[in-house]
Specification:
Blueprint (H helix, E strand, L loop, with lengths): L1 H29 L4 H18 L5 H4 L16 E6 L2 E6 L5 E5 L4
Antiparallel strand pairs: 1-2, 2-3
Helix pairs in contact: 1-2
The chain binds zinc ion.
Length: 105
Amino acid sequence: MIKHKRNLALENKDIAAERVKILFEQAKLRFKKSPELSDRYMQLARRMAMKFRVKFTSAQKRQFCKRCFSFLVPGVNCRVRVYRGMIRYVCLKCENVARIKIGKR
Ligand SMILES: [Zn+2]
């Protein structure tokens, strides 16, 4: 019984990860026409990820603001700068700065 439950949870996790992926894709596609919808997708993706404990991929992590959860598009609503071996993403909505280390050579 317990084993069955665990398998089910794992399956749900896969589905959740897939849905998160789709939400990111859709957010990207819809951003030009309705950025609010993209933000909404990010909130849904976050809720989904938390519920099923799905980790965002590193590519996904840099596509939304960790504070206000708006979908970030460089040059539109976020500023990207490279500084001392770090990439800095500044959300123009809440001014939150995300720093990402540039990968090891
Ligand atoms: Zn923000």
